[in-house]
Amino acid sequence: MMTSIKDSSHLAELFDLLEGVLAWVKDRQGRYLWVNRAFLIQYTLEHPGGDGLVASDQILGRTDYDLSPAFMADQFRLDDEQVLAGHRIIHRIERVGEFEGITTWNVTNKIPVRNAKGAIVGTTGMTRTLNRDELPSGTLSEFEPVLAWMRDHFHRAITNRQLAAAAKMSLRAFERQFLASFHLTPQKYLRKLRLRIASRALIYTNESLSGIALSCGFADQSHFTREFRRQFGRTPRDYREHYQLPAGVPVTKTAAHKQ
């Protein structure tokens, strides 16, 4: 696989010319085999303190667990496992930076890499930020209030009818257009948002599991545990223990919905 990538250096140069497009190739173990220049620039921006652009050999051979916080790497790996199983992630529009203060819209694609015999030997993908005029019809003008409503009220029960009202659309039209734009139903999108917020609360706060469950909109701790295990492959308690911050790093007791 490494040989085929090196032999395609002209193709790699082409990806280096795509401004704002992050592209990469990983092996089955999630190790980066190749990244483009935009990926290196982004990594440098997120990890300041060096003497300019980070060298590719600081990325190659490493995994997302080496480059990103563990809880984020875990979510990247879940994507990779889906692709390694033969699935494709095509034109997925997603919000990025939900907790970093600057939220953008990205379009992401990930597909399997196969060898000459057709066996899946890795994954490749690309992602880029969408301009406002590139967003699917209605994503900003009709769905921005919906996503803001979800973010402000996710700790309570939210119905599709309430979301449709926020979008000023009929229920049927809202459900159909939301699915077409985000490739998720409104309730699945909401559940993923709740689980992402809960995952951070588990790491960065001392809030009890039952408290996080309720503050993130789950009916009770059992419901929270069931959904969390389905998404992350481990219970909230195991997740907290696995990604526990090093001793001395301050945590808070802040409720999840006030982060």
Q: Could you estimate the helical fraction of the residues in percent?
A: 40-55%
| Rg (C-alpha, Å) | 20 Å
Computed structural class: alpha+beta
N→C terminal distance: 43 Å
H and E order = HHEEHHHEEEHHHHHHH
Number of strands: 5
Low-confidence stretches: 1-6, 98-102
Biggest β-sheet description: 5 strands, antiparallel
The second-level CATH architecture of the largest domain is 2-Layer Sandwich
**Overall tally of structural domains:** 2
Numbering strands along the chain, what is their spatial order in the largest sheet?
2-1-5-4-3
Quickly count the helices: 12
Q: Any chance you could write out the topology, listing elements then pairs?
A:
Elements: H1 2-7, H2 9-16, E1 21-27, E2 32-35, H3 37-46, H4 64-67, H5 70-84, E3 89-96, E4 104-114, E5 120-129, H6 144-153, H7 160-167, H8 171-182, H9 186-204, H10 209-215, H11 221-232, H12 236-242
Antiparallel strand pairs: 1-2, 1-5, 3-4, 4-5
Descriptive report:
This protein has 2 domains: 2-131, Beta-Lactamase, CATH 3.30.450.20; 134-253, Arc Repressor Mutant, subunit A. α6 (144-153) packs across α7 (160-167) and α10 (209-215) crosses α11 (221-232). The chain is built from 12 helices and 5 strands. It has helices at residues 2-7, 9-16, 37-46, 64-67, 70-84, 144-153, 160-167, 171-182, 186-204, 209-215, 221-232, 236-242, and strands spanning 21-27, 32-35, 89-96, 104-114, 120-129. It has 259 residues and is of the alpha+beta class. Helix content is 46%, strand content 15%.
